């Protein structure tokens, strides 16, 4: 066990503060499900944006980045850097629309946008599918990382790790609801970022590394430093750069990076006090998540290649760890074993905070689906608000138990990431276009969901038994093609959404674009005036989207160049980032 007295004091103090916030928030959150799952819809952008950042900074995120860097170098991070485009799309094309919808959850949206029994089925099924299945997968992934850290740094069993951190999280998230989760997230973000920076500082100072200059010139590292994969290796260039940047970001549904927004991102936007705060919260999250946070993780990952060059060295360093969990992602917690007293406490607490922030969000989000979109909608629609809050707390505990169980069955973080990508392949485009094209209906989404899931099952259990195995990227592209063909065909041949529902949706959300021309024409034919003053400027949104993407990538690679010994190019890119951000904020005034 590597923690000393002061380290334990820091960790215990964090647990106490988290529980205190949960208790403090419990009275307000117990009033009704709007307070419990939406914090009353009156929170400012900065607390919501920080909460989004904290949630995506889960315990398995640095493990995932370490796994990627050790296998494919810095450029391997394009598999998640590409989702920056998804985030900027949400900022400028969906944030205001979600806030105007007035729904409690993104799943409630289905019966606002679609009609008939198909819409009701979709809402109920997605509540179970996302509330239980998907959330359990997410929780199991971050719990696996917590298990590895607990085993390496604390010397405790997987079950003990889950019980200690899980129980504390369940208590404060079930008592305080979303309000307790969000305000705890703020503290967790500060701790998480400070811990990541401290970990990077100590890793670079390790005797085997010998500082930044030695790191970037080390023979084991020089071929890992490219920001873009070498074009000479066509397969790598295709799989970790071209496909993520040009296909994956708009076509794949992935939690936290849903095209058009979804899950906890939408939950935070709905909790904003107004449309402006909703937009600003996602913008803040997108900038911080992609432009500021990656480098501490990447530096630790690079250092780990020198200190632990292979699996044998990791196993030798931690002979008591379960051999099944010693994978490349184990190198991040392994590097943390070198932290000095005090800093060790900060770093471990930061990782616990990262775990708890993601866990609490997924628990609250999953419970909101189970309560609002299944229990209240289909089981007991006459439930009192007090009863619904109680059901939400029971659902929170249940989801945690299931997620902890599944965590014990997984081996590495990249495994979870790949599973989620394949299951969501091909569904992304429908989540974008349903806001901008009247023809998409509930049946389209049902078919997209079924086709994507069945294709994933086919590749997981059937294909290899009869045919030559395919690469992961080939399976992904086939999944996208099959799913997209199925739902587009369904949109054209199935019965459209009731016109009354479409008119009501347009009136409420002010959904713009040529895809609504038919509905706008109908509204005009009935003598109803269409007030376009609340429709955002499409041209300005496109320009702002481009400026945001350029600004964040320029900042990311500019700071990276400075860190890795190329200050001239780094400064030039930082200047470009400043210009892009200036243009971005200037354009915001137009919508």
TrEMBL record:
Molecular function via GO: D-glucose:sodium symporter activity
Would the keyword Phosphoprotein turn up in this protein's UniProt record? no
Subcellular location per the Swiss-Prot or TrEMBL entry: Membrane
Q: Name one GO cellular component term.
A: plasma membrane
UniProt main location, coarse? membrane
The organism's place on the tree of life at top rank: Bacteria
Tagged with keyword Transmembrane helix: yes
Membrane disposition: Multi-pass membrane protein
Q: Which residues cross the membrane?
A: 6-24, 36-58, 78-98, 127-147, 153-175, 182-204, 236-256, 298-318, 330-348, 388-408, 414-433, 440-461, 476-494, 540-564, 570-587
Entries under Pfam families matching the protein: SSF (PF00474)
UniProt keyword annotations, A-Z = Membrane, Transmembrane, Transmembrane helix
Q: Which family does it belong to?
A: Belongs to the sodium:solute symporter (SSF) (TC 2.A.21) family.
Q: What is this protein called?
A: Na+/solute symporter
- List the source organism: Cyclobacterium marinum (strain ATCC 25205 / DSM 745 / LMG 13164 / NCIMB 1802) (Flectobacillus marinus)
Its lineage opens with:
Bacteria, Pseudomonadati, Bacteroidota, Cytophagia, Cytophagales
